[in-house]
Design a protein that fits this description.
Layout lengths: L1 E4 L8 H5 L10 H14 L5 E5 L8 H7 L7 E5 L14 E6 L2 E6 L14 E4 L12 E3 L10 E2 H9 L13
Parallel strand pairs: 1-2, 2-3, 5-6, 6-7
Antiparallel strand pairs: 1-8, 4-5
């Protein structure tokens, strides 16, 4: 099973205020623990999770590994976001995969058009914390837009059924 998420902002106390997240305290510990619990409620150890940017503001890969990644179920793929200075420079900014004949493009930032969008591919993004309306077959998979949970591929199938075609979609027979 594939899961998608973004904008966890582990260890970032000010994000609670900036995004009006429903967590208390002067430290991000309650938020971090809730996000980890929510993640592990739905993600199994054999699942794959694509983190589409802003995993953590902490700039120390050892702390990120021991305090967060090691506690999260699943196999993790990380896409660079605007706050991911902990990531080595070779981490990707765009990740593409075809799952069950559906092409998906993941980038921290929302795009107007993307790879294969004219053929109905999906674009998954974060960065906007639920504040940017999708255009066509795209979805903000950030935790603020999804009740602080990752979003499964199966959930995305249902979401995308309700969204209009991409603005550059080529209808068959044209």
């Amino acid at each position: 099973m594939y899961w998608f998420t973004a904008d966890e902002h582990y260890g970032h106390t000010n994000i609670i205020k900036y995004c009006n997240r429903p967590f208390q305290g002067i430290l991000a510990m309650e938020m971090d623990n809730s996000l980890i619990q929510n993640h592990n409620k739905v993600v199994k150890s054999s699942d794959t999770v694509i983190h589409i940017g802003d995993f953590s503001l902490i700039n120390n890969i050892e702390i990120i590994q021991s305090n967060y990644i090691s506690k999260l179920n699943g196999n993790h793929i990380f896409i660079r976001g605007s706050h991911d200075n902990w990531m080595p420079k070779y981490y990707h900014e765009i990740w593409e995969k075809t799952i069950n004949n559906q092409h998906i493009v993941c980038c921290h930032y929302a795009m107007r058009v993307w790879s294969r969008s004219h053929y109905g591919s999906w674009q998954l993004y974060g960065h906007s914390h639920g504040g940017l309306k999708p255009e066509g077959k795209q979805w903000d998979v950030g935790v603020d837009n999804n009740n602080y949970f990752p979003v499964s591929f199966d959930q995305l199938v249902e979401i995308m059924k309700k969204l209009p075609d991409n603005i550059n979609f080529l209808k068959k027979g044209i």
